[in-house]
Design brief:
The protein is an all-beta fold. Helix content is 0%, strand content 22%. The radius of gyration is 12 Å and the shape is elongated.
C-alpha cells in the first residue's frame, strides 16, 4: 500500500495484511492531517512470484 501526499513524501508498506483479511492499516505522519492524499494498492502472492498491477483507491 502506498499513500502519497502531493508535494510531499510517499509512505508505503511492502508487506501488509493478507488479502483475505479484507483490510489493512498504515500509520501516517501527523503532517499529513487535513491534506489531500492518494492511495494505491497492489497484491502479491505469498511466495512473491506473482504481483498485481497497482490500482488507485478512493479514501
Amino acid at each position: 500500500m502506498l499513500r502519497l501526499n502531493p508535494g510531499g513524501k510517499a509512505v508505503y508498506v511492502l508487506n501488509g495484511a493478507k488479502r483475505s483479511s479484507g483490510q489493512d492499516e498504515m500509520e501516517l505522519p501527523a503532517s499529513y492531517a487535513g491534506k489531500e492524499l492518494h492511495c494505491y494498492i497492489a497484491f502479491k502472492s505469498s511466495d512473491g512470484k506473482r504481483v498485481s498491477n497497482s490500482v488507485w483507491v478512493e479514501v
